[in-house]
Amino acid sequence: MWPQFAQGLFQMLQPGNVLLLLVATVIGVIIGILPGLGPVFALALFLPMTFSMHDASALIFMCALYASTVFGGGITSILLNVPGTPGSVATCFDGYPLARQGKAGLAITAVTVASVIGGLIGIAGLIFTAPALAQVSLLIGPSEYFMLALLGLSLVAIASKGDPLRGLAMGGFGLLLSFIGRDSVSGVLRFTFGSTNLQGGISFAPVAIGVFAIAQALVMAEEGGTISQDMAKVSGGIMEGIKAALRNWVTIVRTAVIGLVIGIMPGIGISTSNFVAYLVEKRLAKNPETFGTGDIRGVLAPESANKATVSGELVPAFALGIPGGASSALFLIAMAVHGIQPGANLFKSNGLLMSTVYWALLISYVPIFLMGVFGAKYMAKVTRIPNSILVPPIIILCVLGALSFANSINDVFIAILFGVIGYVLMKRKYPVACLVLGMILGPLMESNFQRAMLLSHNSLSIFVTRPLSLVFLVILVILAVGPGILGKFGKKLHLAPMTKGTK
Fold it and tell me: Helices 326-337 & 38-50, crossing angle to 10 degrees?
């Protein structure tokens, strides 16, 4: 094993491969910054270029492009409240408030450190536990996926920022939107109202661009001024950001593990992992009320998780030939073109190639770290540009991002429509994050519920007879009733000494 790692490093450090990695990193960060594009767009766009490359060079290019695109999405989430990728939506919740406090430089530096640590944990998981974790993922069936989605949906109350009724309303609205179009199991059309444009459903990306990016641009246009409320300076240097990240190393490690596990489960991906990591961290925090107001843990958690998910998605792809998501599916296409067969033999017959891939993922974080840390103070200056100058290019990028998602003008109309809806919801303090969470989890929950019913001949017992499904159900019940029971128990303990003293 170790000799192959040394040989893989030697192959990775060939001048041509290093150049490819650097070029891919720069391109990935730029695409990640552009709203609505994301890693799937980047990998699909440059996939044909890899066909003429050597097999190792092709995978090196794609690894660096994948990791850097996910990183780039967090930058605009912090600076402009515009998620560059679907995996950086949750970063907006605390990243933008930090930017408004003049701490954009600190936030970007801290996120860079969290990204590197999360990425390294994900790579370690890919290297050392890929076969075992791939086998565990085979135990996850429709009933387990349904319970996981239901578990994620239960976190809507946490994302509602103290107003669970509005959070549930937004989550329900997101679920309704996810049901529009053709049923993925039966093929029946629902809620299309005879429109052919709605038969394919409403995609998550243009809705996210609308409710977050366009709505925020409208708010910025209305407020005027600049993003940073402190015009004197943009605070937070390199050392402050690094210290802020290292002080919260438990958050980074914990959410990286969450991102790795979610990445291994096929079909979930970074769109879910960054939300789940954020909500779990908020749930575990002693002071959850600070989340959403500029808590540094609110940017460290989702960014650490989505970097670990990058490697996690490759585990079932490499070990089983099952893509963990759309991005890893493109990796499988590139491998097929070069005659590389995924599976157990991949690690034996192509050990050198896999070692090169591991090194490509590892080394890609070197330029990412340098760009994030030393470029943070320059990126942060965006927050001092007047909104009147920023808003027009943001709107243009949003329209281009929505159009390029599926090359459909309908997505542009959807993005504009939900931009107006998002603006109204923001002004009335409705948590739009809950809407997006409902849209993400809706298809996963619905399709797997139907599959579970088909497997069990319409018996709900499948959700309690399968061990993992039962475990997730118990966790769901604990999350639902646990806080209330603990709260009442705590009040009794608090009142007992007072009662005794009054007698």
Answer: 10
